[in-house]
Amino acid sequence: SFGSCGQEADELLNLVLKKAKDDILVIELPAHKEIFPEEWSEFSDFFKKRVKGRKSSLRTNYAYQKRWVLNSIRNFSEVLATPDILLEHNGVFEGRPAILAAAGPSLNDEIENLRYIKENGLAYIFAVGSAINTLLENCIHPHAVCAYDPQKDHNTRVFKKVVDKEVKDVPLIFGSSIGSKILDYYPGQKMHMVTSQDTIGGYFLHPAYKDGLEKVKDAPSIAVITLQMLCKLGFSRVILAGQNLGFKGRHRYAQGVDYKGEVTEAEEKDSIYTQDVHGNEILTKEGYNLTRTQMEAYIRKFEGVEFINTTRGGAKIEGAPYLPFDEVVEKYLDRPVVEENWHEMTDHCYDAGYMKERLAAMNRARDEAGALLEKMEAHLKTVEKLCRNRNFAQAEKTYTMLGRVFNRLKANDFFSTFIFPMNRVFYQMLSDEADDIKKEKNKLKKGEKVINAFGRFLFECRKDFRLVTKAYPGIEKAVKDYAACC
To answer: Taking residues 134-155, what's their average pLDDT?
Structure first.
């Protein structure tokens, strides 16, 4: 079957999708479909998933490619001023249970169980995103709330009640590429975790007394990010609550989340079916489904952790068997485990000397990157002039020089840390066109393709270079201030 081909099938579809410039038309051979109905169905499902996955990835990267980097720059001083929970508390919670409380409508069913657990210290409760509002509405203050959304105003909406009520006893654990606005207003303690989208943290940060920087990989939902974090912190049992990953009637969120309405008729029409924990079919949307499959992948990865899903009527999550919350409490949560001062950590957990060395290297790379971008622009102008004069022999030599400068630029630390991540979609477009440029026999058309492809990419890179250069002094100041305190 097609799916059994595994990596070969995946690579073939990746190649097809990479080459496709427009919509792909699949023409089926009726005899093949009739003789091999199961194989055809398997191929069709496999193909649709790959197309949807690529489209989703492109949409996400295009929407956030610049924001991830700019957020990480703005957040850098806050990262240095707060504890890294993955570094400070790695393995500290070994053998203990954690509850991942999401904002699905089934969270309403478990309020009294959560209240009992919190009052008796039977497990650590981590709210994700909007779930904090449902818990606060019921006078339950979780041990922490987690957030990572890179959008400018999303988190200020989510945490409006926390800010308005000045809730100071719920620490915020934020992803380092989060939309920076909420960090200015959050009233309680803050901790951070470095995300895979934070190339700035990845370059400058190194633990002061451990090897390697621990990160969480970016995901379509804060629930998936938090799941990774809990497993890395050493929790032996992760209990999912309110993780519906589907609609419950017309409801998508638990009570207390008043900035999101009910499911609309248009959304219902665009929905798909999935199986719930009781074996029934429920409506869900592509985003929830993607979250579910990613969650399942991490559940498979963290083999030493036991996962339990308590979400009544929620989507079935492979690897997290359903068990009613009452039974979970009775069977597993029979003694206090929460330490009162668990959140006390040092703020200075990174190597200041390493940071200063990296800053000096980055300053040199910044100057070089600016010069290389100017050289690329000069070569492109030369190509344009040579093609206009039909001097194609000299144009070919200039393509070679352009390629060499481009390779030096890609190897430059400033470019690879700041500029490239802000233009990953444009680079992908350039990369996809490279083969067409090489194969082009018409010399004039080849010149036009080189100018158009590199011109678009270079325009965006130069624009972002100016933008980052303006913000860069904030990083220099943050490093110097941190080193002075150490």
So the answer is: 93
Residue with tokens 């000096």: 360
**pLDDT tens digits along 80-103:** 999 999 998 877 899 999 999 999
N-terminal to C-terminal alpha carbon distance within the chain: 60
Would you say the C-alpha torsion 409, 412, 415, 416 has a positive or negative sign? positive
Q: What are 347-356's pLDDT values in tens digits?
A: 678 999 999 9
Q: In terms of Cα–Cα distance, which of 12, 6, 241, 280 is closest to 112?
A: 241
* Residue pair 347/81 in contact by the 8 Å Cβ criterion: yes
156 CB neighbour count, 10 Å cutoff:
16
Task: Name the helix (H) or strand (E) containing 172.
Answer: strand 172-175
Separation of alpha carbons 80 and 201, rounded Å: 10
Per-residue pLDDT of 426-485, as tens digits, reads 898 888 888 888 888 999 999 999 999 999 999 999 999 999 999 999 999 999 999 988
Which residue is it, tokens 């657990």?
117
Tokens found for residue 9: 């099938």
In DSSP terms, 174 is beta-bridged to 147, 192
* Contact assessment for residue 448 and residue 384, using Cβ atoms and an 8 Å cutoff: no
Look at 224 and 425; give whichever has higher pLDDT.
Answer: 224
DSSP 284: E
Residue 45 CB neighbour total at 10 angstroms: 12
Mean residue pLDDT of the chain comes to 89
Residues 147, 155: Cα–Cα separation, whole Å: 8
How far is Cα 132 from Cα 142, in angstroms, rounded to an integer? 8
pLDDT digits 0-9 by tens, 185-203: 999 999 999 999 999 999 9
> What is the pTM for the complete model shown?
0.87
Please give the C-alpha separations between residue 161 and each of 60, 153, 167, 188, 388, in angstroms, as whole numbers.
28, 14, 8, 13, 63
Both tokens of residue 195? Answer: 């995300």
Sign of CA dihedral 319, 323, 325, 329: negative
Print burial letters for 207-241: b (CB count within 10 Å at least 16), e (below 16).
beeeeebbbbebbbbbbbbbbbbbbbbbbebbbbb
Tell me what the mean pLDDT of segment 282-296 comes to. 92
